[in-house]
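Please go through this protein, sequence plus structure tokens, and consider how the sequence yields the tokens. Keep your notes short.
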Amino acid sequence: MRDTRETVAMLTPHGIGEVRAFGGVPSLTGMDVAGAMGMGLSRLGAELLFVKYALDDDLIHSLRVTWFMHVMEHKMQEGWKSHAPGKFKGLSDTTLAENISPNLCNRCGGRGYIMPLKKAVTCPQCGGSTKQYPSERAMARGVGVSVQSYRETWTDRVKWCRDELEKHERVAVSLLWARLRP
């Protein structure tokens, strides 16, 4: 079976074609993927998959709005305070941009390990996560706060945003694969 990126790319006009089984009958088509995407995926999850894997730039604005509304709902539930509401727009934009870009680790090239002496060792820079997150300074600049304010107030909020985006993506991917299973 294909990976998520290839499967969702089947929905785009420039995407990958059908998967043909022996005998010339497609075992997976764009129609199958479209049907699976339309069944039970949250709006945030579906838009994340389209933007991240199908490179559908037409949906980026809708995804930004959906994610911002999700962050604001959580803000209200948790009672997050800020003297400048625009900071939450910076928080949602920065964390979303971080999530949809590859952010591959410079040291291991996104593999999660290095091979110094022909033996695989967990990458010391990314700790095996394959990702390289922006620095505190870059995140503070994106949110629109000082580094000190970021450390005191915004670090936990950024962590929640990262975890929430990863959760929605993970759930959408598992639902997609569950729907595509014969």
Observations:
- The chain has seven helices and four strands.
- The longest helix spans residues 147-180.
